[in-house]
């Protein structure tokens, strides 16, 4: 007997989990007593509703037919539209482990390892959970479901430590609803049994690599692998074409189409323009999942759906001209961490900067177009302090922005910032540099004190 398709207007009316199997191009509800039994020859849609929010997933069996896979993708888009369309949605494809997340994130939980790295723009990315992924120069988060360990070896950076603690707190309180405990491992980094039992015991601490790649260039190198694809049905058939690699621009996104961004270590993003068709949206969603297999990406690689007009920073950070497309053409001040240790000037922009971005161990440049400020941290080395002006002159010479010929350079010392300098920051607290508020120990108290 052929069953009728479901009424999309009726889904998601109750809290909890609902599951459908794709059958004859329609969705067939699964009885609750059969929840947890997924067959490799089928495709499924799973919806969990809680309060005003929801998680929508599709699960694709290894032996599912092309028609079933295509129907699952299309029905996911249709259901998402019926539910109102969340601005950002994290979509789990199936494979053989997808259901563990849907049924209960803490049941049969498999350990996850996150790598927190960067000198200024610290980002956390999931890596393979094995001891070979660890190194003595970066921060790592071990997620065991009900327990999280923030592992901070002695050579890891201050901002990496703060970012790691903040990320672990978010997972524990938001993703786990307060059901997870966070352990901070600083002095116990090489002795904690709970952490090292997942990596062969404490003896493994003596066998780790000293440090990973250069912090300054780590994410810059990752950007070289960026690839942007366009999904369009303008010709009548769905076409997926690579349009940019290495450098992607906001202006390349067209509201009438869907796009797929492979951000390497950061995962795969599916951007849906407001004017793209249902066919384009479902094809992008489906192709994003196929892309993981085609490129043989790790099974933990996230696929994130992003709606035009509600793009999160995790997506926009990869587009060098995004702010230009979003804001007026008036110049926005830029903050840079600048280094010439190798003899070649390295400039790394600090996105969405604030006063906290000024690190007392560095010399930094605030570019206000016709005025260049060199900020010298109290902990900068004598050589860095002496060479601050020269570094700024090199930056000004190599920068191609159109400026007034009388652009000036002013040196600012930590704790002696001028009112003009302070106004370039969203808010300024004079006490921040007078106390130990920026220390890792104090941030630990602020993040985890009740």
UniProtKB/TrEMBL annotation:
<comment type="similarity">
    <text>Belongs to the villin/gelsolin family.</text>
</comment>
<dbReference type="GO" id="GO:0051015">
    <property type="term" value="F:actin filament binding"/>
</dbReference>
<keyword id="KW-0677">Repeat</keyword>
<keyword id="KW-0117">Actin capping</keyword>
<keyword id="KW-0009">Actin-binding</keyword>
<dbReference type="InterPro" id="IPR007123">
    <property type="entry name" value="Gelsolin-like_dom"/>
</dbReference>
<dbReference type="GO" id="GO:0015629">
    <property type="term" value="C:actin cytoskeleton"/>
</dbReference>
<dbReference type="InterPro" id="IPR029006">
    <property type="entry name" value="ADF-H/Gelsolin-like_dom_sf"/>
</dbReference>
<feature type="domain" description="Gelsolin-like">
    <location>
        <begin position="247"/>
        <end position="315"/>
    </location>
</feature>
<feature type="domain" description="Gelsolin-like">
    <location>
        <begin position="24"/>
        <end position="91"/>
    </location>
</feature>
<protein>
    <submittedName>
        <fullName>Gelsolin repeat protein</fullName>
    </submittedName>
</protein>
<dbReference type="GO" id="GO:0051014">
    <property type="term" value="P:actin filament severing"/>
</dbReference>
<dbReference type="InterPro" id="IPR007122">
    <property type="entry name" value="Villin/Gelsolin"/>
</dbReference>
<feature type="domain" description="Gelsolin-like">
    <location>
        <begin position="123"/>
        <end position="184"/>
    </location>
</feature>
<dbReference type="GO" id="GO:0051016">
    <property type="term" value="P:barbed-end actin filament capping"/>
</dbReference>
<dbReference type="GO" id="GO:0005737">
    <property type="term" value="C:cytoplasm"/>
</dbReference>
<dbReference type="Pfam" id="PF00626">
    <property type="entry name" value="Gelsolin"/>
</dbReference>
<dbReference type="GO" id="GO:0008154">
    <property type="term" value="P:actin polymerization or depolymerization"/>
</dbReference>
<feature type="domain" description="Gelsolin-like">
    <location>
        <begin position="346"/>
        <end position="421"/>
    </location>
</feature>
<dbReference type="GO" id="GO:0005546">
    <property type="term" value="F:phosphatidylinositol-4,5-bisphosphate binding"/>
</dbReference>
């Amino acid at each position: 007997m052929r069953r009728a398709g479901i009424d999309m207007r009726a889904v998601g009316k109750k809290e909890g989990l609902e599951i459908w199997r794709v059958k004859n191009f329609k969705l067939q509800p699964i009885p609750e007593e059969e929840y947890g039994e997924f067959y490799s020859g089928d495709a499924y849609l799973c919806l969990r509703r809680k309060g005003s929010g929801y998680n929508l997933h599709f699960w694709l069996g290894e032996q599912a037919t092309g028609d079933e896979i295509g129907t699952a993708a299309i029905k996911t888009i249709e259901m998402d539209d019926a539910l109102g369309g969340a601005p950002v949605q994290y979509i789990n494809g199936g494979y053989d482990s997808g259901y563990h997340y849907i049924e209960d994130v803490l049941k049969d939980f498999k350990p996850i390892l996150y790598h927190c790295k960067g000198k200024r723009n610290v980002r956390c990315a999931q890596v393979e959970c094995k001891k070979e992924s660890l190194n003595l120069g970066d921060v790592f988060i071990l997620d065991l479901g009900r327990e999280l360990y923030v592992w901070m070896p002695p050579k890891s950076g201050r901002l990496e430590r703060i970012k790691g603690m903040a990320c672990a707190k978010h997972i524990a309180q938001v993703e786990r609803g307060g059901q997870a405990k966070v352990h901070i491992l600083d002095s116990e980094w090489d002795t904690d049994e709970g952490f090292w039992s997942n990596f062969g015991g404490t003896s493994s601490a003596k066998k780790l690599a000293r440090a990973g790649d250069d912090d300054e260039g780590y994410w810059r190198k990752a950007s070289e692998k960026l690839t942007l694809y366009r999904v369009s049905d303008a010709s009548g058939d769905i076409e997926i074409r690579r349009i940019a690699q290495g450098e992607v621009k906001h202006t390349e996104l067209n509201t009438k189409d869907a796009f797929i961004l492979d951000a390497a270590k950061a995962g795969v993003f599916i951007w849906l323009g407001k004017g793209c068709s249902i066919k384009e949206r479902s094809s992008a969603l489906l192709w994003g999942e196929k892309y993981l297999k085609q490129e043989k990406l790790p099974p933990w690689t996230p696929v994130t759906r992003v709606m035009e007009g509600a793009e999160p920073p995790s997506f926009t950070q990869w587009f060098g001209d995004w702010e230009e497309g979003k804001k007026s053409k008036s110049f926005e001040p830029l903050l840079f961490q600048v280094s010439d240790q190798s003899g070649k000037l390295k400039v790394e922009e600090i996105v969405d900067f604030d006063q906290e971005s000024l690190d007392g161990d560095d010399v930094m440049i605030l570019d206000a177009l016709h005025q260049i400020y060199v900020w010298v941290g109290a902990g900068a080395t004598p050589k860095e302090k002496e060479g601050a002006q020269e570094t700024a002159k090199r930056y000004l010479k190599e920068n191609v922005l159109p400026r007034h010929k009388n652009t000036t350079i002013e040196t600012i010392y930590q704790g002696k910032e001028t009112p003009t300098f302070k106004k370039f920051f969203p808010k300024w607290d004079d006490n921040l540099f007078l106390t130990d508020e920026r220390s890792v120990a104090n941030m630990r108290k602020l993040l985890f004190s009740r």
